[in-house]
Specification:
With 203 residues, this protein is mostly helical. It has one domain: Trigger factor, domain 2. Helix content is 65%, strand content 2%. It has 10 helices and 2 strands, in the order ααβαβααααααα. It has a two-stranded antiparallel ribbon. The chain is flat and about 50 Å long. The two termini are 32 Å apart.
C-alpha cells in the first residue's frame, strides 16, 4: 500500500488501511530512534552525562555502528535527566500527531484502530524516549571522557553544507525559504552532537 497522499488529501481510509498506517508510524519512529535523538538539541552539553549512565568505556577510538548499538544496549542508566526525558517525550508525541494528521486521522481514531488505550500509548512513548536519552547520554559521556569537541571551523563548514542542501547562498535566503533562522535550526538539530557522533561512530 502506498502511503503517499498524492491527489487525495482528504481521502478517508478504511479500518485496515488506518491500522497499517498506524503500524507504519510506530515502525518508522522505532527504527529511527537514534536518527531523531542525535539530531535534536536537548542540552546534553550542559550536564555531566557520566553521572547518569554506567558502561564500559570502549578502547577503540572509532566504533562501528554495530559496536555502538551493542555498547548502548549494555549501558545501565542510573537515572534519567528530567528535562531531557521530558523533551524527548514531547518530540515523539509531536511526530505521532504530525504523521497521523497527514493521513487525515485524529489521535482518537489512531488509538482505536491500533487497539491501544491512551495510557498504553503514553507508556510506549516513554519507553522510546528513554532509549533516545540513553544513547545521547552515552555519546556525551564518551565525548567528555575523551575530550572530543567540535571546532568553529567544523561548525561553519557544516552550516555551509546546510545552506547548499537547501539551494541557498545566505542565511537571509535560508530564513526566507524555511521560515526560521539558520541559528535556530542549528540549535534545533543539535549540530554539535551530530558532528561529535560522526567522530565516535564510523559508517
Amino acid at each position: 500500500m502506498s502511503l503517499s497522499k498524492g491527489k487525495h488529501p482528504h481521502k478517508r481510509y478504511t479500518r485496515k488501511q488506518k491500522l497499517s498506517i498506524g503500524l507504519f508510524i510506530f515502525i518508522v519512529i522505532d527504527v529511527a530512534l537514534f536518527a531523531y535523538t542525535i539530531t535534536r538539541y536537548n542540552g546534553y552539553d550542559l550536564i555531566n552525562s557520566e553521572k547518569y549512565v554506567e558502561f564500559k568505556m570502549p578502547k577503540s577510538k572509532a566504533l562501528t555502528e554495530q559496536e555502538w548499538q551493542a555498547l548502548v544496549k549494555n549501558t545501565k542508566v542510573i537515572k534519567y535527566p528530567k528535562v531531557q526525558l521530558s523533551k524527548e517525550i514531547e518530540h515523539i508525541k509531536s511526530q505521532y500527531h504530525k504523521r497521523i494528521k497527514e493521513y487525515d486521522m485524529t489521535m482518537a481514531e489512531y488509538l482505536k484502530e491500533a487497539g491501544i488505550t491512551e495510557v498504553q500509548f503514553n507508556r510506549q512513548v516513554e519507553e522510546m524516549a528513554k532509549e533516545n536519552v540513553r544513547e545521547k547520554l552515552v555519546l556525551h559521556a564518551i565525548a567528555e571522557k575523551r575530550k572530543i569537541s567540535v571546532s568553529k571551523t567544523e561548525i561553519e563548514k557544516a552550516k555551509k553544507g546546510i545552506l547548499k542542501d537547501k539551494g541557498v547562498n545566505s542565511e537571509t535566503e535560508y530564513k526566507k525559504l524555511t521560515g526560521e533562522s539558520l541559528s535556530e535550526h542549528i540549535k534545533e538539530i543539535d549540530l554539535e552532537s551530530k558532528l561529535i557522533y560522526a567522530k565516535i561512530v564510523k559508517k
